[in-house]
Design goal:
- This protein is 44% helix and 12% strand.
- It is an alpha/beta fold.
- It has two domains: 141 residues, no CATH class; 140 residues, Alpha-Beta Complex (FdhE-like fold), CATH 3.90.1670.
- It starts with 11 loop residues before the first helix and ends with a helix.
- Helix 6 runs antiparallel to helix 7.
- The structure holds zinc ion (ZN) (2 copies).
- One zinc ion binds next to loops.
C-alpha cells in the first residue's frame, strides 16, 4: 500500500481491500449502471397528461406509478431496451441469446410489450407469466431484463411524479415512486434549522435500485416484514469495516446492507452504493439471509459464489 499521507477517509483502504474479490462484478455492473444513467438522461419526455395522484391512497402506501397508465412508457421503454439490453448481453454473454429473443419480440409484437409494461410498471404477476410464456423465457429472466430497461424510464419521470404528491411524508419501506424494495440503507446527517434536536445517530434513508429515488425510513424496523422486536433484529458489522452494516431480521431472514455516512464527508454516489457493498451481500448470504431487494448481481448468485470461493 502506498504511503499517501493524510487520508480523507481512513476506512477507504480497508474497504478497497475487502472489495478486491468482487472487482470484476463491480466493474461489469458498474458499466450497466452507467449506461442506464446515460439512457435515462437521453430519453424523450414521457407525457403524463393531466395525471392526478389520489393523496389518501398514496399516503396509504400506493406508489406514485400505480396512478400512471403503464402504456405511457411504451415509446421510452423500447428506446431504453435497445440501449441497455445489448450492454447486459455483453456483461453476461450467457444472456445474449435470450435478450436477442426479447428484442425481436418487442420489435414486432405490440401487445406483448403491453403485457411486459403491466408486469414491470404495476407488478402484474399474471402479465409476467403470460409474457414469459409467449417469449419462451423464464419469468425471472424476463423480469430482470424488463427492470434493467424500465429503470431509466421511471428515473426520467421521477421529478415530474414526485412534484404531484407530498413524498416527504412517506415513511414506508418500499419506494414511493415505483414501489420497488430498497437495495441499501444509509445513515445520514440532515441538520435542518427547524429541527432543534438533531438525532445524533443520523437519519435512515432508503435508496431505490430501480428509479434511484431516496426516502426516509424508520430506524429499528425490518424493511422486509415490518418486525420491530429488537430481540430479533440483528446488526452485523464486518471486521475492518466498522461503518458498514448488515441489518438482518431473524423473523423473515431477510437483510438490507447499510452504510453509516454520519462521519463521512467525501462524496458518495448513492446509485453505486449497493454495488460497492457486494461484500456485505456475500457475508449476509453466507449466514443464510436473503436480500430484501435481489439486485442482479445477488440474484444471479454472484455474491454467494464469491463468498464460497474466498
Ligand atoms: Zn423507485
Ligand atoms: Zn423481517
Amino acid at each position: 500500500m502506498s504511503n499517501t499521507g493524510k487520508q480523507a477517509n481512513p476506512g477507504q483502504d480497508a474497504t478497497t481491500k475487502v472489495l478486491e474479490p468482487f472487482r470484476e462484478i463491480i466493474d461489469r455492473f458498474g458499466l450497466l449502471l452507467k449506461r442506464q444513467a446515460e439512457e435515462s438522461a437521453a430519453l424523450a419526455p414521457v407525457d403524463l397528461g393531466g395525471l392526478v395522484i389520489g393523496e389518501e391512497a398514496f399516503l396509504g402506501g400506493e406508489p406514485l406509478v400505480s396512478f400512471v397508465d403503464a402504456e405511457v412508457f411504451a415509446p421510452v421503454f423500447k428506446q431504453s431496451a435497445s440501449g441497455v439490453w445489448p450492454v447486459l448481453g455483453v456483461i453476461f454473454p450467457a444472456l445474449a441469446e435470450g435478450l436477442a429473443t426479447l428484442t425481436a419480440k418487442a420489435d414486432k409484437d405490440r401487445t406483448w410489450v403491453s403485457l411486459c409494461l403491466r408486469a414491470v410498471v404495476h407488478g402484474d404477476a399474471e402479465a409476467l407469466e403470460q409474457a414469459a410464456a409467449k417469449a419462451a423465457v423464464s419469468p425471472d429472466f424476463l423480469l430482470m431484463s424488463l427492470r434493467v430497461a424500465y429503470g431509466p424510464c421511471i428515473a426520467s419521470v421521477r421529478p415530474a411524479l414526485t412534484a404531484l404528491a407530498p413524498v416527504e411524508l412517506w415513511r414506508r419501506a418500499h419506494c414511493p415512486v415505483c414501489g420497488a424494495d430498497p437495495d441499501i440503507a444509509l445513515l445520514e446527517n440532515h441538520p435542518e434549522p427547524s429541527e432543534f434536536l438533531v438525532s445524533k445517530g443520523g437519519e435512515l434513508w432508503h435508496h431505490c435500485p430501480v428509479c434511484t429515488h431516496r426516502w426516509r425510513f424508520m430506524r429499528l424496523v425490518c424493511a422486509g416484514c415490518g418486525n420491530q422486536d429488537h430481540e430479533t433484529l440483528t446488526r452485523l458489522a464486518l471486521p475492518d469495516s466498522p461503518r458498514e452494516y448488515i441489518y438482518a431480521c431473524e423473523s423473515c431472514k431477510q437483510y438490507l446492507p447499510c452504510l453509516d455516512l454520519v462521519e463521512r464527508f467525501d462524496a458518495v454516489d448513492f446509485d453505486l452504493a449497493a454495488l460497492n457493498s457486494v461484500h456485505l451481500d456475500a457475508a449476509a448470504q453466507s449466514r443464510g439471509y436473503t436480500p430484501i431487494s435481489p439486485a442482479p448481481w445477488t440474484a444471479m448468485g454472484f455474491a454467494e459464489t464469491q463468498a464460497k470461493a474466498s
